[in-house]
Specification:
247 residues; alpha/beta; Rossmann fold; seven-stranded mixed beta sheet; two-stranded antiparallel sheet; 8 helices
């Protein structure tokens, strides 16, 4: 019993130092001279340090970012993980391969899947994808930011299944997206929003355990009525922030 107590005490003792290390590394990544001003302008709204700490990011993790887009979060994650961890990007990573990943300091990021499996069927507003094997496993954390809303039910299932397969047991799946009213019928105004209750159910159906949610990106002045690109809400949408674990 004494040895167990000492082990727990030691773990508690090093936790503040680990947290400070992540704080310092994320803060340094955000302050990098090469970071575009357009990216910096979104820091206050996206709260990257608080968001990544909520998900439990550590600098020695193997992290997979799904659908990284132009690389807003990739620019933050890559330098944090460069020394002791590893960053992978997958699905729709073509822009990064031709852009950000050619810049100095991002050579260690690995693209493990391109967008070949992602497609939009004729007449559909949404992308879809089949089951996809990302050919990577034992990942500590999978993250995706404002991407679930781009897919139909089949595509969402494919994304969540890919995340589940890539993660190790105990690995974390972090999801952020624009909020839609629960059980609201689809309209042109809400098509890029997601019902968070539906998201939780679909992700749990993929095998995940729901761990926690955060109100970091709750916005009371987003009435959930308008398309997220409208000037009245763009950059200030209410977003859900959900944390899951692979059993």
């Amino acid at each position: 019993m004494r040895s167990l107590f000492l082990a727990v005490a030691a773990l508690v003792a090093i936790s503040p130092a680990m947290a400070a290390d992540i704080d310092d590394k994320v803060t340094a990544a955000l302050a990098a001279e090469s970071r575009p001003e357009a990216d910096r302008a979104r820091d206050r709204n996206r709260k990257p340090l608080a968001t990544l700490k909520f998900f439990g990011l550590q600098d020695d993790m193997r992290v997979l970012e799904l659908i990284p887009g132009g690389g807003w979060y990739t620019r933050v994650l890559a330098p944090v993980l460069a020394e002791d961890g590893k960053l992978y990007v997958a699905l729709g990573a073509g822009r990064l391969s031709e852009g950000l990943l050619t810049e100095p300091g991002f050579e260690g990021v690995t693209v493990i899947e391109d967008e070949a499996n992602m497609r939009r069927e004729s007449g559909s507003r949404y992308y879809t994808m089949d089951s996809v094997d990302l050919d990577v496993d034992n990942i500590d954390m999978v993250l995706t930011f404002r991407n679930v809303h781009n897919f139909d039910a089949g595509g969402r299932a494919g994304m969540h299944a890919a995340a589940f397969a890539a993660l190790k047991s105990g690995g974390i799946y972090g999801v952020v997206d624009h909020t839609k009213r629960h059980m609201e019928s689809e309209t042109p105004e809400n098509r890029r929003r997601v019902d968070p209750v539906q998201a939780i159910k679909e992700i749990e159906a993929a095998g995940f355990e729901f761990v926690d949610y955060s109100t970091l990106h709750y916005r009371a002045d987003d009435e959930l009525e308008y398309e997220v690109g409208r000037k009245s809400v763009s950059g200030n949408t209410d977003r859900f922030t959900l944390k899951f674990r692979k059993p």
